[in-house]
Amino acid sequence: MPRKSRLQLIFPALFLIAVMAGYFLTRTADPAKEVPRASPKPASQARQSTLPANPALTRTARRANADPDRDAPPFAIANERIARFNDDASYRKFLAGLSGRGLRLLGKSDRLRAVRFGWGDDFDPSDLDDAGLGYNYIVTIPAPPDAGAQAGAVGFGRNALAWLGVGQDNSAWGKGVTVALLDSGVNDHTALNGGNGKVTAITLTELGAGGVQLGHGTAVASIISGDHPLTPGVAPASDLLSIRITDAEGTSNSFTLAEGILRAADSGVDIINISMGSYGNSSLVADAVKYAQEKGVVIVASSGNGGLAALAYPAAYEGVIAVGAVEGTGEHLDFSNRGDGLDISAPGFQINAAWGEELLTSFSGTSASAPFISGAIAAAMSENPHMTARQAADLVLGVANDAGYPGDDPVYGSGILALDRVMEHGTPGIYDVAIASQVLIPADAATSLPQVLVTVQNQGTETVINSPVSIVSPSGTQTVNISSLAPGQIHTIRVPVALPANGDPITINASVQSTEGDKDASNNSRSDSFAQEQP
């Protein structure tokens, strides 16, 4: 979702209106998590979807001559259906008889035995008792999130890699790894090795007369594999397979998305990046995701830019790595969707990226966050040739820097991407203890005062012994000694606080020391202000 620039995307009115209406999603508060950190969940771990199930593959019974779209859910494309079949004979018979039923073939998938079709005025779904019918949903490049970024949000510019801990030459990262981009296509661009040989393209959609290939896919590609000083990529040596699934307005659909996933998986890619989404749950896409995962492909997807308490699809599907967005101080961006299925967060505000043909843009949104994770997985694979894509993904999730509530939480997932920890995970002798986060939780039945949870994390590769923590609050100074903290482990200290009723803020300053020396002293302390919410 690029920030306002010379080329501003125009998005479908239907999607914007539906998102503004909020659909069935609410902005609920996130509950406090228990302080012990859960074990990192593998990329393939099952989880429940965060949105209601789609009644796809159920037989539809309607009154004759009734409007077929009368009961269609939001985001379903009018005058279309997807028919699914349990056996090849039924699938072939349906295809052969389409014209006789007055139906138009819009697409077919032999592998999934699925047919996308349209109809005229006299269509009655109850006539198709030989097929399981589902809807075809709108899939889009999410709308620009600028209006949803909170005041004071800090952009990254070209410094995202440094912020993520990359201080060395990374030009070989990603070598031998192929990442597929299901997006708007990738233009030739100097930031992508001059456009010479880095990108292979498959087009599943036609742009039509006068159609222009959008820059969104090029921006995503440059975050993964950019090799220009102004737009440095995470894994510059990786190969890209661009699969264009959008039209000239940046719109696609469930059927084309599923087809793109299948094409990518069959092409032998290691990772699929999907910086697009839908709020319609398609069983066809879910089955395509499962097919790719069974072939060992890792799918990374943006969580969405609606500022909602649920993830867009395909990020919400089982095993897909769902990525949220943070700004330059590590704060969750208000526009970034959240939910129990969120896996990890990454930079997502005002990031230098390639655009169009030889242009640059300031790129914002979870569309920008997802390729950081895809690039990190590619980098980990290239530096650890024995690793599969799934193992590399588990590593990326497992060494994230904790943020927000202690452990996994719906706002940050397992934490914020830490590229330095990913690439140094096997390097002995690294000591790095950090104040990872400070979070205010309200008083409850067991406590008379609100509390600030101060979380300390060992972000090195060696166990740290006897790490003193000093916490200064309006009520005084509290000192705690952490006797032992293993690599990646967290320790959370609860600090009761009295918040002024008039809304004036209080400040909590926390610091930690390591007796073994410290790789990065800048994360040894932090200061945060908290205030009581006013009515």
Give an account of the 3D structure.
Helices cover 17% and strands 25% of the residues. It has helices at 13-21, 88-96, 160-163, 216-225, 254-266, 283-294, 366-383, 389-398, 419-423; strands spanning 80-84, 103-109, 114-119, 132-134, 138-140, 178-183, 199-203, 227-228, 231-232, 239-244, 251-253, 271-274, 298-302, 321-326, 344-347, 351-355, 359-363, 433-441, 451-458, 464-473, 476-485, 490-496, 506-512, 525-530. Helix 5 packs parallel to helix 6 and helix 7 packs across helix 8 (389-398). The chain is globular. Strand 8 (227-228) and strand 9 (231-232) form a beta hairpin. It has 535 residues and is of the alpha/beta class. The strands form seven sheets. Strands 7-10-6-12-13-14-15 form a seven-stranded parallel beta sheet, sandwiched between helices. Residues 1-65 have low confidence and may be disordered. The chain folds into three domains: 13-51 and 156-423, Rossmann fold (3-Layer(aba) Sandwich); 55-134, 2-Layer Sandwich (Alpha-Beta Plaits); 433-530, Sandwich (Immunoglobulin-like). The longest helix has 18 residues, at 366-383.
Output the CATH homologous superfamily of the largest domain: Peptidase S8/S53 domain
CATH class call of the largest domain? Alpha Beta
CATH fold-type name of the largest domain: Rossmann fold
Bin the strand percentage: 25-35%
DSSP summary, beta strand count: 24
The biggest beta sheet is recorded as: 7 strands, parallel
The CATH level-2 architecture of the largest domain is identified as: 3-Layer(aba) Sandwich
Task: Map the helices and strands.
Elements: H1 13-21, E1 80-84, H2 88-96, E2 103-109, E3 114-119, E4 132-134, E5 138-140, H3 160-163, E6 178-183, E7 199-203, H4 216-225, E8 227-228, E9 231-232, E10 239-244, E11 251-253, H5 254-266, E12 271-274, H6 283-294, E13 298-302, E14 321-326, E15 344-347, E16 351-355, E17 359-363, H7 366-383, H8 389-398, H9 419-423, E18 433-441, E19 451-458, E20 464-473, E21 476-485, E22 490-496, E23 506-512, E24 525-530
Parallel strand pairs: 6-10, 6-12, 7-10, 12-13, 13-14, 14-15
Antiparallel strand pairs: 1-3, 1-4, 2-3, 5-11, 8-9, 16-17, 18-19, 19-22, 20-21, 20-23, 23-24
Helix pairs in contact: 4-7, 5-6, 7-8
